[in-house]
Amino acid sequence: MTRQNSVKRKLLTTLVVSLAAMFFLLWWVVSGALQELTANYLEDRMELEIASILAELALDSTDFISLNDYHVDALFRFAFSGYYYQISLQGAENPQLLRSRSLEQFTLALPTLPMGGKARLFIKGPKNENLLALVQTIPLRGKTLTVAVAEDLTPIEEDLNRFQWIYSLISLLFLGVLTLTHVMAVRRAMLPIEQIHRDVIQLEMGRIRKLRDDVPEEVKHVVNHINRLLLRMEQRLVRSRSTIANLAHALKNPLATFSHLLHHPVLDGEVALQKELEERIALLNELIERELRRARLADHPLSGSFFSPEQSLGALTRTLKNINFHKNIEVSMDFSPGLLLPFDQEDMTEMFGNLLDNAFKWANERISVTLEEREMATHIWVEDDGPGVNPAEIDSLSQRGVRFDETRPGHGLGLAIVRETVEHYEGTIRFMHSPTLGGFRVEVVLPVPRLHPFQ
């Protein structure tokens, strides 16, 4: 399972992105709402200040405005205190402008509003600070009176920034905690899937015969269907192998009888007929062996346990030494202790059995077997110190029935069976001269199927 198609990865990505988006949206809403609430609160307060200013404002008969600031907030009297007001009268012969003492000689840049209009806006103050201003226009004796009250936002902005930093840190902390919680929850939820994956590997290794059924409801039906399919395939395989084996044995007995009948006195003198019958019987025996081999190599999920060279090769060597007791042959094995190969035990036993049997037939004193895992493949070398094979005859070695020394026992099927096994596992086989022992060398390369851990 690649990372691009990983269910766990997709779930975690979706959860983390959705949580981050939710926290960002929440931060944006809370920050905006807090700013709006603050601005509304300041606006209400500035409306009261405008009312108190208008209450102390006087207009004489010459349309000259004056303000008695005794009852106005004292903060308007200190220079650059952050509290400012500005009053202008438009429409008279001489426009007038009144400013709070806190503004000194600075004039607020205010927009022109229609009669009776009111606006809340952000402007710059005498020290280039941000001000929140409330501007209101009032009709007065056919003229336009504009009253503006402004307040420095610097302290409020500092408090808001401090709040946003604290809120952001707390949000990030909660986001991290929730992300970690979701990661752990997803991993716990995926544990049954990981167990199914491990069971499939154990099934392929032949250590179990079916998947465990104590799984979540979401995958229980799938597991049950797989188990039923495995059972049916195993039953079909057993029936098929049993049928072929029974048929083969049933045919071998009549063929053996025919072989004996070839030497019956009735056929004495019929040399050509005897030779033709012998060839036909040999052909039938070969066909039976080949079909038995194909049936046993048929792919199926319950292919048996993995191959252990340490156990199997030792037993094979001892058996062949007993058979070839008249030879004193030394067999050296070179492979990692505890090596376990992901190939069918029976297939490998038969392949090594034919390779070693061939080596024992031709070896004088020494046989070497080497197994090495590299580049996702298993490399196998079986070599002997025998006479070797003519390079011109190497290409014909794996053909069925081909033998180059009729004095040696056998039917010439061993290396052909080895080639069939190698081809079944999509591997390669090479015959060559042994550079170390001087005799015959067989090199087999079998690609190792990749059994990925769950991701």
What would the keywords be for this entry?
single chain, 455 residues, alpha+beta, Heat Shock Protein 90, 5-stranded antiparallel beta sheet, 5-stranded mixed beta sheet, 14 strands
Topology:
Blueprint: H1 7-55, E1 57-59, E2 65-67, E3 83-90, E4 96-99, E5 118-124, E6 130-140, E7 143-152, H2 154-204, H3 217-261, H4 271-296, E8 306-307, H5 309-323, E9 330-334, E10 341-344, H6 345-362, E11 366-374, E12 377-384, H7 414-424, E13 428-433, E14 440-447
Parallel strand pairs: 9-11
Antiparallel strand pairs: 1-2, 3-4, 3-7, 5-6, 6-7, 8-10, 11-12, 12-14, 13-14
Helix pairs in contact: 1-2, 3-4, 5-6, 6-7
Descriptive overview:
Helix content is 47%, strand content 19%. The protein is α+β, with helices and mostly antiparallel strands. Among the domains are: 56-152, no CATH class; 233-296; 306-447, Histidine kinase-like ATPase, C-terminal domain (Heat Shock Protein 90, 2-Layer Sandwich). The strands form four sheets. Strands 4-3-7-6-5 form a five-stranded antiparallel beta sheet. Strands 9-11-12-14-13 form a five-stranded mixed beta sheet, with helices on one face. It has a two-stranded antiparallel sheet with strand order 1-2. It is rod-shaped, with a radius of gyration of 49 Å. 17% of the residues are buried.
Briefly say what this structure is.
The protein contains seven helices and 14 strands.
CATH class of one domain: Alpha Beta
CATH superfamily of one domain: Histidine kinase-like ATPase, C-terminal domain
**Which class do the helix and strand fractions yield?**
alpha+beta
Unreliably modeled segments:
297-303, 400-412
* Separation, N- and C-terminal Cα atoms: 7 Å
The outline comes out as: rod-shaped
Order of helices and strands: HEEEEEEEHHHEHEEHEEHEE
Given the structure, what is the number of helices?
7
Give the strand order of the largest sheet, numbering strands 1, 2, ... along the chain: 4-3-7-6-5
